[in-house]
Please model this.
Amino acid sequence: MQIDSATAKQLASLQDNSRIRNRDELLQEMINNGSTSDFGVILQNLAGSSAADASGVDSSVLPSVPGVSYSDGLLWQQLGVTANSDDSKLQFVSASHHSSPKSSPTSYDDLIQQASQKYGIDEALIKAVIDTESSFNPSAVSSVGAKGLMQLMDGTAAGLGVSDSFDPAQNIDAGTRYLSYQIKRFNGQVNMALAAYNAGPNRIAKLGVSTDEQLMDKLGMLPEETRKYISKIANARSKYES
Model:
């Protein structure tokens, strides 16, 4: 039997739609059944990423920072746990597919480059944190008292030797140093470090996870702001990557 080209296109479209529905139905069925372990595999396939293996977190060998308590968060450490984990995972999948337009140079590129080289943190990541935290406003003050470009809490700023959180040079240097501590603490797992920067390291350590992949399975145990924070950083970072 011969099939004309218009009919062939319709059949192909129906097959594609069927595959999409089957994928969405599979995700929904996994959500309804609470199958979070399988969800992590699907999440990797959809997001096109995988997390590297890492050893467990041992607080006894963590780098000490004079005057800084790892229970301190920066911006949202006072928030509680809200919403459920399955919704947050779906929100993260959606955010990971969002592409942002490339950004123009900022007024703080020289300071960011210096901090990047000093602490070994990618410039695009530093810019993404500043963008998400303060929209590059050096005078920003949050509702809980976090200040400046990278939103330093007073106690954290003092422990890092900052005398003026509104001074861009001091703020960027200290904020990047603090972020580098978190990345080292969590064995290079960037999303875990970002969650710690936002919600406080002890809260992340108590989750009992050691990789970013495992963190995604327990996002529902974190404040809603922190769940959104991770995806916001990912979107912002894409604007600054060359």
The domain at 56-240 is CATH 1.10.530.10 (Lysozyme).
